[in-house]
Amino acid sequence: MSALTVIQLHDKCMAAYLSNVKHAEEWEDVLKFRVAELEKQAFRYEAVRRMNPRQFAELYAANIECGIPFDELVDHAATASTN
Fold first, then answer.
1. Residue 74, SS3 per DSSP
2. In the prediction, which pLDDT does 2 show?
3. Span between the terminal Cα atoms of the chain, in Å
4. pLDDT tens for the chain, residues 1 to 83
5. The pLDDT of residue 80
6. Distance between CA atoms of 83 and 78, rounded to whole angstroms?
7. Rounded CA gap, 49 and 83, in Å?
8. How far is the CA of 18 from the CAs of 15, 21, 23, 68, in angstroms?
9. DSSP string computed for 7-66
10. Residues 78, 47: contact at Cβ < 8 Å?
């Protein structure tokens, strides 16, 4: 989702707020959830971007051989590298 789309969601949220507070609260929840998802995706992207080719190959191989979802492997590797 592009930044423009996030802005469009925000605009829809604001328009809904002006017309219907309950509806705006629902949009706000949707927007907060989507922003949290985008932050998680950005964290994963940054973690993979900083990996060297060997590290990436190991994660890729674990994904193929063990069937562990790649995102879970990236999350684990990124968390382990920050500790």
1. helix
2. 54
3. 30
4. 555 566 677 677 667 666 666 666 777 888 889 899 999 999 999 999 999 999 999 999 999 999 999 999 999 988 887 66
5. 84
6. 9
7. 18
8. 5, 7, 10, 45
9. HHHHHHHHHHHHH-HHHHHHHHHHHHHHHHHHHHHHHHHHHHHTS-HHHHHHHHHHHHHH
10. yes
Query: Phi/psi of residue 20, each to 5°?
Result: -160, 110
Residue 74 confidence (pLDDT): 94
Residue 5 to residue 9: CA distance in whole angstroms: 6
Q: CB-side exposure of 24: number of CA atoms within 13 Å?
A: 11
